[in-house]
Amino acid sequence: MQKVRMIAQGRVQGVGFRWGVYTLALEIGGITGRVWNNDDGTVEILAQTDSSATMAKFIQEIRKGPTPFSKVTYLDVQMSNFSSYSDFKVAN
Fold first, then answer.
1. Cα(88)–Cα(31) distance, integer angstroms
2. 64-89, pLDDT tens digit by residue?
3. Domain of life, per the record (predicted)?
4. Annotated active-site positions, please?
5. Beta bridge mates, 10
């Protein structure tokens, strides 16, 4: 199981970014986790999947910006170890 923690910087709040990440996870399939806004203007994503190819595609699409008005200027991606999720949700 691949688990990553991502922090997205740029125009990522107020542009539907979290819902775009959620939709992307569902469209790609096989990805579970959480996405939420941080107080510092970044968006944090915890994602897990069994496929390295699936994770690579997910990360690539997030770097592009999952919504038309979002713009990711920096994406920090780190392997992580967190509790497993059975679905993908937008967290508060």
1. 7
2. 999 999 999 999 999 999 999 999 99
3. Bacteria
4. 18, 37
5. 72
Instruction: Give the three-state DSSP class for 30.
Output: coil
Which amino acid does the sequence have at 38? Answer: N
Which residues lie closer than 8 Å to 86 by C-beta, 6 or more apart? 32
Per the confidence metrics, is the pTM higher than 0.85? yes
Cβ–Cβ < 8 Å for 79, 3: yes
Residue 33, token pair as written in the block: 């986790």
User: What residue has token string 């592009």?
Assistant: 64
From residue 9, alpha-carbon distances to 46, 73, 86, 89 in Å are 15, 6, 26, 20
